[in-house]
Amino acid sequence: MRHPLHTPIGRFGVETMYDDVDGCVATMPVAHLVNPITGAPSVGPLAVLVDHVAGLVNHRRRTADIWAVSSELALETSPEAVDVIAAHPDVPVLGRARPVGSRTTTALGECELTVADVVVGTGTVRSFFVAAPAAGSDDFPAEPPDSVSPPVGLAELMNAGTADDDDGGTVTLAQLPDPVLNNTMGVVHGGIASTGLEVVASAAVNAGRSDPLVTASLRVNFIRPFLAGAESRYVGTPLRVGRSSGIADAQAIGADGKVAITARLTAYRY
Fold this sequence. Notes:
Keywords: Hydrolase. With 270 residues, the chain is α+β, with helices and mostly antiparallel strands. It contains five helices and twelve strands.
């Protein structure tokens, strides 16, 4: 199933082949997407696919009167992920998810990411459950009008603004408001926000390097709704950068100036 272009996953080209309580299977093209700050191939958009397939597994385990809200997302990539994706530019990444354990106050979904039958990564999404608002309430914003065609390039897909860095290596990327990027709750889609966090964290560990470090893991915690506005942005700060590895922290700061999402990225030179 193709998703409408005026939805977050539709904009990123996600197609869902199977979606039920026992699992979810979907694809997304990523080979053409590069980090808008470094210009290097980006694995950050894989977070969109992870959020979709592993999050849907949790969503299908809810009852009609509750919502499943993501609280954690993790992405792990293989050392050869970037090379395998680049070697198959016309083959989308396939995500196959399944539920893990029982559903209590939370639920856990995990997925495997493959390209041409080669495993390039894994991911998990943990969700917790909250009471659903009544139909017709303001918690259900109106859908934006349908789009004719999606933008081209990761910065355009994310509707990212200008990037900036300081002498300490901190990198900032503006997240401009765009209703197409919002989920049904009217906040920036968790997978897209996770992508923004990977973009700035990767740029932070690679500042001034000629031998790039490649993202191996991204671990995200969702703290509060991430609202896009004039001041919304992603901020990546290097924690430790060595010759062959690096660690960076990242934050998504909402229009209200509050930290909405945090992440830690680990990268290596392969």
